[in-house]
Queue: 2 jobs
Job 1
Amino acid sequence: MAIISHPDTLARRGVMFILSSPSGAGKTTISRMLLDADDELKLSVSVTTRPPRPGEVEGVHYHFVDDDEFDRLVEEDDFYEWAPVFGYRYGTPKGRIRAALKDGQDFLFDIDWQGTQQLYQKDQQDVVRVFILPPSLPELRRRLEARQTDSIEVIESRMERARAEISHWDAYDYVVINDDVDACFAKVREILQAERMKRQRQTGLIPFVRELMG
Ligand SMILES: Nc1nc2c(ncn2[C@@H]2O[C@H](COP(=O)(O)OP(=O)(O)O)[C@@H](O)[C@H]2O)c(=O)[nH]1
Ligand SMILES: Nc1ncnc2c1ncn2[C@@H]1O[C@H](COP(=O)(O)OP(=O)(O)O)[C@@H](O)[C@H]1O
């Protein structure tokens, strides 16, 4: 694969940019805004046994598989990590991620805290962990209802789980409250931009500085 050319930085390793949030706090919304705004960022598409929601497209939002296929992928060690969530299984395929990171490709991961911990254990140097919080629990419920994708029972179970998910806030590098969506997006984007500049990622820095020093 060709080395990615970055307009703002020297040659560097890609960032594994993780966005997590309690369900309904807005990580899908913020992820979509980031992907639309940023050509250097690519979504890591997860594999799931959950059925598609209206409007979700195979290969774009998830790879939708049945239980047997998921079992096969686990056996073949095709996942970076996987976890059960709400009665379904979700996994991050290793695919070409490792090689692409070395070439400077940035990846966005929309995964929960369990997946975040596993990815962080496997690759601390590349991972950046961002947690999005709702401004309040009543607002979280309002957003889940407004999305109109879940039954009352599912919304109740998401609300219950939200409390458990929020308890993992301290396993993240950054915490951003999603009150105004544009403000939240701007903050998350600044985090990504700053992380790209981090000295440890800049594989092109040593030769460049040597040249400057003469
Ligand atoms: N561990 C792990 N979690 C994932 C992965 N993909 C998605 N998830 C999480 O699974 C949960 C349910 O996702 P989804 O069914 O799309 O509903 P959402 O809560 O509305 O985003 C979310 O917390 C996601 O962050 C993955 O590859 N690994
Ligand atoms: N800052 C915000 N203010 C109001 N509504 C929001 C905000 N961010 C997201 N939403 C809405 O809340 C609902 C849940 O957001 P979504 O991005 O699907 O959450 P998640 O992916 O975390 O489950 C969606 O209908 C979305 O349009």
Job 2
Amino acid sequence: MQDELTIETKQATEAKTDDNNIVIKVEHLQKSFEDNKVLKDINLTLCKGENLVVLGRSGQGKSVTIQCIVGLLDYDEGSLKVFGKEIKELLEDELKEIRLKLGFLFQSGALYDSMTVRENLSFPLTRVLKMKDDSKINQEVEDVLDAVGLKDAIDKMPGDLSGGMRKRIGLARTLILKPAIMLYDEPTTGLDPITSKEISQLIMDLRKKYQTSSIIITHDLACAKITGDRILVLHEGKFIAEGSYKDLEKSQDERVNSFFK
Ligand SMILES: Nc1ncnc2c1ncn2[C@@H]1O[C@H](COP(=O)(O)OP(=O)(O)OP(=O)(O)O)[C@@H](O)[C@H]1O
């Protein structure tokens, strides 16, 4: 009898072959900074509803990959398609439209320290979506705070929150625009192991609630285990392994199994 893991992997493979199911497709992506060739040959596919983890040590090009996807960095060679559209070929307005579908959670959470939580969360609604109706704005803010489990923090200042709470608010700030794709840049960095686990669990809960597809870049193995349907291991600008946590845990490749020791 096939175990659950085999069935899930088979479903992921079948889903990958169906183009309608693909939300991000990256082929042979290359990026250098002067003579520092950071991305040598990046290939990845993100399917609808999937959580894809990119695991890699420091300096391997994880953040550069994400920044290329959101159009913050230009790539030199290769193809990068989001919802079937080549990012490099988009006009500014088209790129803006695509960016609205991408939620990028920065490592820092990117909160404004001089604004309350309510103001931090209202800001994207008024600035990006040009919403004006205060009662609608308040409702959206309350709903997203409820989703991240922090309804009581609405009138607090970011400086009065713990690291884990700030992460949750950062997440809420990204989610309030209801992106179809979430890009997490090291979501558990700087958190203790218990809080990290809570944030990883929250990522899972939010996928269900908001129906997002996500790329999660991390070097936190516990986060990869909880959140990753599929894991890619990045090493020196290329992916050297792909599989479920259970697959990769058994890898004979020293560069892969060194993560699991
Ligand atoms: N804007 C930039 N200009 C020049 N070099 C850069 C720039 N951004 C990144 N790099 C270089 O690219 C390489 C990969 O950086 P990147 O931040 O993607 O690593 P990472 O895998 O995300 O590591 P970490 O886990 O430490 O964040 C590093 O050598 C870095 O110095």
